[in-house]
Design brief:
This protein has 109 residues and is an alpha+beta fold. It has a three-stranded antiparallel beta sheet with strand order 1-2-3. The N and C termini lie far apart (37 Å). 19% of the residues are buried.
Length: 109
């Protein structure tokens, strides 16, 4: 089975590091897809980490701004660049609260 085919069998990933890499890849792909689909989303080089290696993907939701650090190469290949992004200072907890509230409200735009 190729990596692109849908499978819920993770038995091939017995190494904990491989499992964690797979989880982060899933998370990063989801963050990139979300940022690309959001009406006000995109990516920008990460100013707080090596901007050649890391990017920030972001989206504005009705409950507030959300963002994630992802590998720059992934962001650049999947998400529209947005150099006008200004981080509103949200923490991970605030981001997760915003996402939870929006999901509870039905993810409306």
């Amino acid at each position: 089975m190729s990596p692109d085919e849908t499978s819920h069998d993770n038995s091939e990933q017995t190494n904990p590091h491989e499992q964690m890499d797979a989880v982060y890849r899933d998370r990063n792909l989801l963050a990139c897809a979300f940022a690309e689909l959001a009406p006000m989303g995109g990516w920008t080089p990460a100013p707080d980490y090596d901007p050649e290696e890391w990017a920030i993907v972001h989206a504005s939701t009705p409950t507030g701004q959300v963002s994630w650090h992802v590998p720059r190469e992934m962001a650049a290949s999947l998400v529209t660049r947005d150099d006008d992004y200004e981080w509103d200072g949200h923490s991970r907890d605030v981001k997760n609260d915003r996402l939870a509230s929006w999901a509870e409200e039905g993810c409306w735009y």
